[in-house]
Amino acid sequence: MSDQPPTTDKASPSATLGRVAFELERQLALTLAPGLYLVATPIGHLADMTLRAIATLARADIVYCEDTRHSRTLLAHYAIRAPLRPYHEHNAEEQRPRVLDDLAAGKRVALISDAGTPLVSDPGFKLVRDATAEGHAVIAIPGPSAALAALSVAGLPTDAFFFAGFLPAKEGARRTRIAELALIPATLVIFEAPTRIAASLADLAAGLGNRDAALARELTKLHEDVRRAPLASLAESCVTDPPKGEMVIVVAPPGESEVSDASIEESLATALASLSIRDAARVVADSLKVPRGRVYDLALALKRRDQD
Fold it and tell me: What's the pLDDT tens digit per position in 249-304?
């Protein structure tokens, strides 16, 4: 095989196809050294597999995955016939010695997750730690990541961010965790299940203040959707229009979101339905972390408008 790509018209789709085919053929022809390969896989759109990821899985001796049924569909799409073995949080302690034995035997071992980059909210860090301790090569084959995809489309600061994974399912533990996140000087990236999304957004608004945020749903899939609004508004939208599918919450850093009068009035409208002006102002001011006098003045103005 020539080490130069075919010369074709750069402007035509056939030229692109030729260059892609050339690069994939070149990757497949390279020797894959023994070691542990952490291969990122699509978070929804099958075409998001990189050429290097396809070539790595095609040449691997064994592919460890979370769900063999799920991953078999992906491999079959690219005509990859590598043996699949399960590696997930429930069998990791049992399987880890087996993976290390494979590496000790000089095999090319790939680790993939159901979607995205391995080890991001997935089991595997102990395997990487043990593999490196035994002197085995560990190689990242980068690609899709739901956390980074959501961060990139959120429209919020990206110079510093903190990935918090999933919030606790129980309300008390969740609020405690949110209090810990409140002072982190970075954009927060959080995974959440659709059944808890409204409650988690409401707790985030209460614990962090009504910061600007984005809710990214079903990224790269047919029904991809990104809602951008203050946390309280997002929480309300999830009550009136419950979203479905895989979700990522992105929240602005502390001090980045200037709380608007409209956001304060939105919170006041709910509070005033059951509280006095003074109590409503106190509750909303504490929740949004804004001066109580400002909130009280807006509450008075809101009451006057309602009476007119």
Answer: 999 998 755 667 788 888 898 888 889 999 999 888 887 777 788 888 889 988 88
- Give the pair of three-digit tokens for residue 133: 């301790």
Pairing of strands 62-65, 212-217: unpaired
Could you tell me the end-to-end alpha-carbon distance of the chain, in angstroms, rounded to an integer? Answer: 82
Same domain, 45 and 112: yes
Instruction: Indicate if 152 and 246 belong to the same structural domain.
Output: yes
Regarding whether 151 and 71 lie in a shared domain, the answer is no
Q: Domains in the chain: how many in total?
A: 3
End of a domain among 144, 178, 212?
144
Residues 275 and 247 in one domain: no
Return the pLDDT at 5.
Answer: 61
Q: Please, which contacts does 174-183 make with residues 24 or more away whose CB atoms are closer than 8 Å?
A: 174/199, 174/200, 174/203, 175/203, 175/206, 175/207, 178/203, 178/204, 178/206, 178/207, 178/208, 179/207, 181/207, 181/208, 182/207, 182/208, 182/254, 183/254
Q: Which residue has the tokens 């692109």?
A: 16
For position 226, what pLDDT does the model report? 95
The predicted model scores a pTM of 0.78
Give the structural domain span for 240.
Answer: 147-251
Residue pair 208/182 in contact by the 8 Å Cβ criterion: yes
Same domain, 98 and 174: no
